[in-house]
User: Which sequence fits this backbone?
């Protein structure tokens, strides 16, 4: 590397952006509505679970941290209803309250998909590995605020505001150890598309089929020449 080249460095904000993109990607696909987040990020001193629904996920490995999402009742119900309706559920079969176990279970499932997408990107883009626990989802009253402590040496915490398709608001909070990833060598970090892989495999099989047919006919001709 020449002295004029500057290394590519990935820090807290880059990790946060990757996580935010996982949130918008998974929820937009799941709810069939446009989810977006603010262009501004807040530096905060601690992460908290807040009403009406709070969820947290701990992760460890290449770096350690905590992800917290806090949903208003309106935001949670919008995401829950949109997701279930897109799955083919009848509207009259849906839960009517954000305190329902079904709502918590569905929101926990969506959070699990989000963190799964995020850990996949960490493996591709940062060339390291992290594992996470099962998301914990809690319906909270207005009088309750829980502070979630993490065993981080030099924690950095951020909060980002998200907006649903109907402009309901929810918040994502990230706390991680202060860390930087410095790129030493170039590598491929593109995501594999399962559909394209399946299509590629099918085309290979289709191309192989005529060859097999040709081999079979040649074998038949050979056997006939032998009087068999």
Assistant:
């Amino acid at each position: 590397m020449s002295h004029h080249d500057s290394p590519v460095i990935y820090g807290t904000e880059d990790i946060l952006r990757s996580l935010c993109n996982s949130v918008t990607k998974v929820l937009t696909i799941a709810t069939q509505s446009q989810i977006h987040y603010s262009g501004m990020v807040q530096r905060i001193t601690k992460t908290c679970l807040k009403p009406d629904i709070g969820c947290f996920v701990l992760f460890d490995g290449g770096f350690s941290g905590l992800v917290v999402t806090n949903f208003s009742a309106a935001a949670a119900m919008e995401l829950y209803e949109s997701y279930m309706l897109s799955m083919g559920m009848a509207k009259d079969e849906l839960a009517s309250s954000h305190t329902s176990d079904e709502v918590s279970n569905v929101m926990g499932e969506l959070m699990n998909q989000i963190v799964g997408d995020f850990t996949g990107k960490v493996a591709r883009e940062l060339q390291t590995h992290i594992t996470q626990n099962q998301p914990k989802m809690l319906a909270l009253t207005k009088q309750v605020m829980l502070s979630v402590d993490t065993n981080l040496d030099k924690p950095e915490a951020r909060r980002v505001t998200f907006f649903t398709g109907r402009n309901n608001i929810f918040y994502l909070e990230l706390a991680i150890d202060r860390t930087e990833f410095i790129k030493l060598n170039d590598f491929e970090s593109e995501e594999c598309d399962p559909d394209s892989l399946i299509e590629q495999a099918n085309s290979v099989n289709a191309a192989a089929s005529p060859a097999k047919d040709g081999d079979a006919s040649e074998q038949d001709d050979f056997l006939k020449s032998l009087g068999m």
Q: What stands out?
A: The mean pLDDT is 84.
